């Protein structure tokens, strides 16, 4: 990572979790992989503080760990996940997206899970119902069933997913902080878990409770102490949920494609693409080039895959993203080097290979100016010179 990225990660950790977690996280970023004792020795922090910091990072998916170079018999080694730290920059966007799709209830569900890293469904439902009830007029309250419904929709559309099961790897350091997950366990990839999006049956009925301002601190402590007991009573003990960042990013990609179609074609075409993307959002793999086949009207970003049922069509994701990237590059070139350089750049993108004389003729630019512009683009690594 660059020095700027390391500094940014450190500032994010400090803002969200404090100085100690920032020091542990930043040292792990710079060192790569370290054992618990090595990390405590090099940071000159108390072992207990390092354990607590690692538990916080693991709870939020920002630290992974497993057997070291000595194998299972050796000490566990820790590695920071910088990508998940940088996700904190997008927390407001994740929360706003949940609000726009699923209202205030969806917003608070995602906000609570982002703040705590991972939560059980029953605990999330109770917390969100209490918050919504607290903001309602006197005499009104939020029913648990409404929050359960919003939570279920977030899972069905894959914005939330189960945390993968943890396999014990020796002694646990989770006792260092009040956290429900074991600190010494190596999680698998969430998508590889067969029940990743399976909702548990929870025995939860009732309504949110209004908190008095004088009892806020006491309620928080009481809720933390009774978390495990409440989960066992509700039937979802040990089943924790986390935000699926990749699903949010795919949603952002889809919105960019829809906006591009609207600008290039019209509003009706963008609504067709929006419908196709929403209908296939769960069934289309994350890195697929095309969406799942659907019946629709053909346009530039839609390709035909068969004739059954009057024609089957898919959204060409790679072509749409390539066009978005191309438009971005063209705007950068125009802003930095002017409209004539942008014209030459667009010409080379379209024709792939051209001689200098062809560039002059097709772009209708004088020979000297074309030569200077091509040299500038070449020096900036925006075009390449191919010698035959």
TrEMBL record:
Gene Ontology CC annotations of this record: DNA-directed RNA polymerase complex
The RNA polymerase III subunit RPC82-related helix-turn-helix domain extends over 8-66
Chief location: nucleus
Give TM regions: none
- Region entry Disordered: which residue ranges? 166-233
What does the UniProt keyword field contain? DNA-directed RNA polymerase, Nucleus, Transcription
Classify the source by domain of life.
Eukaryota
Q: Where in the cell is it found?
A: Nucleus
Task: List where Basic and acidic residues composition bias occurs.
Answer: 220-231
Asked whether the UniProt record includes Transcription among its keywords, one would answer yes
Q: Which InterPro entries does this chain map to?
A: POLR3C_WHD, RNA_pol_III_RPC82-rel_HTH, RNA_pol_III_Rpc82_C, RPC3, WH-like_DNA-bd_sf
Q: Which family does it belong to?
A: Belongs to the eukaryotic RPC3/POLR3C RNA polymerase subunit family.
**Its biological function?**
DNA-dependent RNA polymerase catalyzes the transcription of DNA into RNA using the four ribonucleoside triphosphates as substrates. Specific core component of RNA polymerase III which synthesizes small RNAs, such as 5S rRNA and tRNAs.
What is known about its subunit structure? Component of the RNA polymerase III (Pol III) complex consisting of 17 subunits.
Which PANTHER family would you find in this protein's record? Answer: DNA-DIRECTED RNA POLYMERASE III SUBUNIT RPC3, RNA POLYMERASE III DNA DIRECTED -RELATED
Name of the protein described by the UniProt record: DNA-directed RNA polymerase III subunit RPC3
């Amino acid at each position: 990572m660059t020095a700027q990225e390391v500094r940014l990660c450190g500032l994010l950790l400090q803002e969200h979790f404090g100085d100690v977690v920032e020091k542990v996280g930043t040292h792990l970023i710079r060192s790569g992989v370290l054992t618990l004792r090595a990390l405590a020795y090099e940071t000159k922090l108390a072992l207990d503080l390092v354990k607590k910091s690692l538990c916080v990072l693991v709870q939020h998916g920002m630290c992974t760990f497993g057997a070291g170079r000595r194998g299972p018999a050796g000490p566990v080694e820790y590695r920071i996940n910088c990508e998940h730290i940088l996700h904190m920059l997008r927390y407001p966007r994740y929360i706003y997206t949940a609000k726009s799709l699923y209202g205030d209830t969806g917003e608070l569900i995602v906000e609570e899970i982002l703040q705590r890293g991972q939560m059980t469904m029953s605990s999330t439902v109770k917390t969100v119902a209490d918050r919504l009830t607290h903001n309602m007029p006197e005499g009104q309250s939020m029913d648990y069933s409404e929050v359960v419904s919003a939570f279920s929709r977030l899972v069905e559309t894959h914005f939330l997913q189960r945390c993968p099961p943890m396999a014990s790897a020796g002694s646990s350091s989770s006792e260092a902080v009040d956290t429900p997950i074991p600190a010494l366990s190596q999680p698998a990839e969430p998508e590889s878990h067969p029940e990743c999006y399976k909702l548990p049956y929870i025995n939860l009925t009732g309504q949110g409770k209004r908190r008095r301002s004088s009892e806020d601190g006491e309620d928080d402590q009481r809720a933390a102490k009774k978390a495990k007991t409440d989960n066992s009573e509700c039937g979802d003990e040990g089943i924790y949920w986390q935000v699926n960042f990749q699903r949010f990013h795919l949603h952002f990609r889809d919105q960019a494609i829809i906006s591009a179609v609207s600008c290039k074609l019209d509003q009706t075409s963008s609504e067709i693409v929006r419908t196709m993307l929403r209908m296939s959002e769960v069934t289309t793999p994350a890195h697929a080039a095309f969406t799942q086949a659907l019946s629709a009207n053909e346009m530039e970003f839609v390709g035909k895959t068969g004739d059954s049922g009057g024609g089957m069509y898919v959204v060409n994701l790679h072509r749409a993203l390539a066009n978005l990237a191309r438009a971005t590059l063209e705007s950068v070139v125009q802003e930095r080097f002017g409209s004539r350089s942008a014209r030459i750049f667009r010409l080379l993108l379209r024709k792939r290979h051209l001689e200098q004389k062809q560039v002059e003729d097709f772009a209708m630019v004088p020979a000297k100016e074309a030569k200077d512009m091509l040299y500038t683009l070449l020096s900036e690594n925006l075009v390449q010179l191919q010698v035959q």
